[in-house]
Amino acid sequence: MSTPIYQSATFRHPALGQSTGFDYSRTGNPTRQVLEEGLAGLEGGCRALAFASGMAAITAVLCLFRPGDHLLVSEDLYGGTYRLLNQVAVPWGLEFSLVDTTDLAALAASIKNNTKGIFLETPTNPLMKITDIAAVVALARQRGRPGTRK
Questions:
Q1: Do the domain assignments include residue 10?
Q2: Cα(109)–Cα(26) distance, integer angstroms
Q3: Is residue 149 part of a domain?
């Protein structure tokens, strides 16, 4: 079955105060809903979110943290992500440490009491290092980091 692509910006409603569930395409539309549901199903998740760009997705993730929270971040990082961290996240009060996320011992040694997340890019850019995501998740769970489930 193929879902049609909805190219409309706004949606018609049956009457005033009666929504179809979609109001404006930037907040959601049937095409994006099918994509998000499909991604969640493929990944075994309860929900997935689709964004217009990677930087929009990263910004949304950063909004989950609070001033004083510490993040471990891949040392080999896309330049735009690095600038977002330095120019936006740091002024918000977030702290981060650059770590080789392919080195689990270095990653484990970098965890602080206020470490609330591990942000990694794999493969990295530009060196194309590959991080073992399952191993990083296991480390985070072992250390009882928030946001990890058994």
A1: yes
A2: 41
A3: no
Residue 147 inside a domain? The answer is no
Which tokens go with 23?
């109001």
pTM: 0.79
One-letter amino acid for residue 148 of the chain? T
Structural domain range at position 44: 1-50
Give the CATH number of the domain where residue 81 resides. 3.40.640.10
Is the separation of the CB atoms in 48 and 37 below 8 Å? yes
Q: Is 28 helix (H, G, I), strand (E, B) or coil?
A: coil
The pLDDT of residue 12 is: 86
Going by C-alpha positions, the residue among 132, 115, 131 that lies closest to residue 77 is 131
The span from the CA of 72 to the CA of 76, in Å, is 12
β-partners of residue 98 are 73
Could you list the mean pLDDT of each consecutive 10-residue stretch along the chain, which spans 150 residues? Answer: 82 88 83 93 94 93 96 94 96 97 96 94 93 95 65
How far is residue 45's CA from residue 86's CA, in Å, rounded to a whole number? Answer: 31
The rounded Cα 97 to chain-centroid distance in angstroms is 18
